[in-house]
Amino acid sequence: MIELRPVEPADLDEFFEYQQDPDANHMAAFAAKNPSDRGVFNLHWQSLLDDETITVRTVTVDGEVVGSVLAYPNEGYPELSYWTAKSQWGKGVTTTAVEAFLKEFTARPIRARVVKDNLGSVKVLHKLGFRTVGEAQGFANARGAVVTEEILELA
């Protein structure tokens, strides 16, 4: 069973562990410069959790922490972001979790950004009704290169 719940302090250990996966960092692209720096990770997550304009949830499968989903203000729109443990890729977990999150977080339009070659994430967003509204280029730490992102929107 896939569920969302508020983030608990112990969840951060799991989130940090998932952030160590090089394949996941490559797909996300816009990861921390040094994903193994726990101090930077803790500071980042504390700022997310302390910010009342950010809605963040832990994703669990049968009670096991497998990721997170959140919305934060960005350039005049709420923006969706999520991370799913690589062990859960291709199982529908991300689609189900994001769909549940969007039922709770109802502000529209909401946007998401995804590197164009992250086909799994693009597929999730399209399946949930997001449509491409633009592109942007930016330097991705995890790839050490400039990448092109799709900007998608759910009206």
From TrEMBL:
User: Domain of life, per the record?
Assistant: Bacteria
Pfam families of this UniProt entry? Acetyltransf_3
Q: Fetch the PROSITE patterns from UniProt.
A: GNAT
Among Gene3D superfamilies, the record links this protein to: 3.40.630.30
InterPro entries annotated for this entry?
A: Acyl_CoA_acyltransferase, GNAT_dom
Which part of the chain is the N-acetyltransferase domain? Answer: 2-153
Protein name per its UniProtKB record: GNAT family N-acetyltransferase
Q: Which organism is it from?
A: Arthrobacter sulfonylureivorans
